[in-house]
Specification:
By secondary structure, the chain is an all-alpha fold. The protein has two domains: 204 residues, no CATH class; 159 residues, no CATH class. Helix content is 64%, strand content 2%. It has a two-stranded antiparallel ribbon. The longest helix has 40 residues. The structure holds iron/sulfur cluster (2 copies).
Length: 418
């Protein structure tokens, strides 16, 4: 089913105000979040509580983030279509030097290293999720960085070569039950102007040609498409569809992950599982075994193994984020009553206010059941991918059996933990 045939959807995607107006609104939300977190103190007395009592911190980590993960699994990179950083980056590139990105940026390792820094430098030592002021500095830094990179490099350099969120959402968007594609590929072949790829259209504010390093007429899978809708606006034949499809469809294509993307997956696994021993026991040891039995097809096995980790990792990431929502549920009302959260944190520190988590038991039970069902479903899908996808066509039967056992052990590592 083509969702663009639904009139309100069509009106939105064809509008010259979409996605720029939502992007501007989100940029102003960034400014409000910055104001709501930059001046918030972090004295030792309130330090254990401020992450939960500050509204900006809660919005970013315990409202926006979990829902972004759910949305990507349902509809692909919808967040990217309204992301303010894309707008800032694109505006920079319109007025900037338009240099070609150097090889080091294109390698993908900049994203992996930045993500590692966010998790372990900013996350662990600077308290990105715990100290509101660090969050404010982070928001200001990524907005500035996206603009500066836009000023130097052509197209969407920040989105394509620097943004860890884009890379994560790109991998998770393989799961989505929707796809943005050209409706009729013959129209593109016969088109004289090719406006959706033309260089002359690259820096139009509305309806520009694709700046995501893909050809909109032959999008292979969901990973690179930001759903920005500019190609549709550029196309004189409006030759695009946004269709429902079977979730996980992209896993039945020959997806190839780069070593840098494999590094990102490993970082997410370590972070979500929060247990590096589990990463070694349940992921690296099975991987070594798989590589040993299929040493003649080393690279296909490595690629298939890593791609197969994506559905489980996405499910674990989502459940991890929803655990955060449940834990923070009693704080949300207080967050809106005291947005900076200092008074609430002080009352909690002085024990004049008490948060009762005991009422959350039913929600945790529901999460437990959802976890079992979700991991069961993910395991079943992983087995079908192993048996049917071209990803594993060069892998022998023993290799496939080991892959199935590896996925079972990997899923068990999360299930036992949650
Ligand atoms: S890739 Fe990153 S910066 Fe670009 S639109 Fe997506 S989230 Fe925003
Ligand atoms: S293919 Fe179209 S919708 Fe996707 S990123 Fe390119 S211009 Fe945007």
């Amino acid at each position: 089913m083509n969702l663009l045939k639904i009139k309100p959807v069509w009106i939105i995607v064809k509008s010259k105000y979409y996605p720029i107006v939502p992007q501007l609104i989100n940029l102003s939300v960034f400014v409000v979040l910055f104001i709501g977190s930059i001046g918030v103190g972090y004295e030792s007395k309130i330090a254990p509580y401020i992450a939960n009592t500050n509204l900006a911190n809660q919005i970013v980590w315990n409202i926006w983030w979990p829902f972004t993960l759910v949305i990507v699994a349902i509809a692909g990179r919808l967040w990217c279509s309204v992301c303010p950083l894309e707008l800032v980056n694109s505006l920079g590139s319109m007025i900037g030097l338009k240099k070609k990105a150097p090889r080091v940026l294109k390698s993908g390792w900049v994203i992996t290293l930045l993500f590692a820094f966010i998790l372990f430098g900013a996350g662990k030592y600077l308290g990105l999720q715990a100290v509101p002021r660090t969050l404010a500095i982070y928001l200001a830094s990524i907005v500035s960085l996206s603009f500066i990179l836009g000023l130097i490099y052509e197209k969407r350099s920040f989105c394509s070569y620097v943004c860890p969120l884009g890379s994560i959402l790109g991998m998770y968007s393989y799961i989505a039950g929707t796809e943005w594609r050209a409706d009729d590929t013959t129209i593109y072949k016969e088109c004289k102007t090719k406006d959706c790829v033309a260089k002359r259209n690259r820096y139009k504010l509305v309806g520009h040609s694709c700046t995501s390093n893909i050809n909109p007429a032959s999008i292979p899978d969901n990973r690179e498409c930001l759903l920005c809708t500019h190609c549709l606006k550029a196309c004189p034949s409006t030759n695009f569809r946004f269709s429902l499809r079977l979730p996980f469809t992209d896993f039945f294509k020959n997806i190839k992950l780069t070593p840098a993307e494999m590094g990102i997956l490993m970082l997410i696994i370590g972070f979500v599982n929060n247990n590096w021993h589990a990463l070694v026991v349940f992921t690296l040891v099975p991987l070594l075994l798989c590589l040993l039995v299929s040493w003649k097809s080393l690279l296909p096995m490595l690629n298939a193994f890593m791609v197969l980790l994506i559905p489980t990792t996405a499910a674990a990431h989502m459940l991890h984020a929803f655990r955060g929502i449940i834990w923070n549920w009693p704080f949300y009302k207080l967050n809106f009553q005291d947005p900076l959260g200092v008074s609430t944190a002080t009352m909690l520190a002085e024990k004049s206010l008490h948060i009762d988590h005991s009422k959350l038991e039913p929600a945790y039970r529901l999460l437990g059941t959802t976890t079992g069902l979700l991991y069961g479903a993910v395991f079943a899908v992983s087995v079908v991918i192993i048996l049917k996808s071209p990803l594993t066509e060069n892998i022998n039967r023993t290799g496939k059996l080991l892959l199935i056992l590896s996925m079972a052990s990997y899923i068990a590592s999360f299930y036992i933990k949650i």
